[in-house]
């Protein structure tokens, strides 16, 4: 009898252990979605290509992402990838395709409350208007943005400042606000509480450009040097070349020709590897002109003549001709 009780006790313990083991098995994850994961990979690939201005290839990968999102009926993914496609169409100058896609997105988002996706579409529209020099339209679109997070607030302030400057005004209050909010965002970035180095770069560029426009060259250099840090981190080489170029302009305005020449050369070293021949030639001219002002050596004259002979740019050729006549 005693043996039977021990056997029953052992069987009960085994049964309890089996039940416990079964209850601790992981639940089936019904949110697993390989097609969506593939779409995200396509979006990330497209974003990298867009950063390097390979817009045709970026368009292709955003289109692949759109197909995957449509396959899984992911509405947010469909909208964001469609905006990505529209942005490439804008950059490539496919204005008919761009307009048709924007109209379709407007219809789809017409009755939705302001969301990040709706704001993303608005940012695309205002970038288009800015590139068309429609600065009043940019400012109007900025007013339509709602429920802004920290990143979008920086972007909105930047667009408002740049458009106001283009209209001939000096938005001191907006600049002060952007300066303060950018400092906060950068501190949050260092603590991993703010993720967009691209937005920080844009904010620093805006602050640098506004200071340059006000002839506050030392202040401008400080902001553009911060933009350099962000663009190096983000590996955005086009923006990095622009930052260095503006620092060169600042030193040139301060009549500090040695650092001016250095920064123009550094910018040239980047654009020389990118598909932007006009900017490359202009940057090299600036580098050599400041180098001559710094050292007054014959080597620079010979390099300037070599640059002139390689040009297919009548306006820059005329500028160099005039420069050489005065040396």
Sum up the structure in keywords.
327 residues, mainly alpha
Topology:
Blueprint: H1 2-23, H2 34-51, H3 55-71, H4 75-92, H5 95-109, H6 116-131, H7 135-144, H8 150-166, H9 172-190, H10 197-213, H11 217-234, H12 237-253, H13 257-271, H14 277-295, H15 298-310, H16 314-325
Structural notes for this entry:
The protein has about 325 residues and is an all-alpha fold. The protein folds into three domains: about 35-110; about 115-205, no CATH class; about 235-325. The protein is built from 16 helices and no strands. The chain has helices spanning about 1-25, 35-50, 55-70, 75-90, 95-110, 115-130, 135-145, 150-165, 170-190, 195-215, 215-235, 235-255, 255-270, 275-295, 300-310, 315-325.
Count of individual beta strands: 0
End-to-end gap: 118 Å
Strand content: under 5%
Discrete helix count: 16
The ordered string of helix (H) and strand (E) elements is HHHHHHHHHHHHHHHH
The quaternary organization reads as: single chain
Number of domains: 3
Q: Structural class, from helix and strand content?
A: mainly alpha
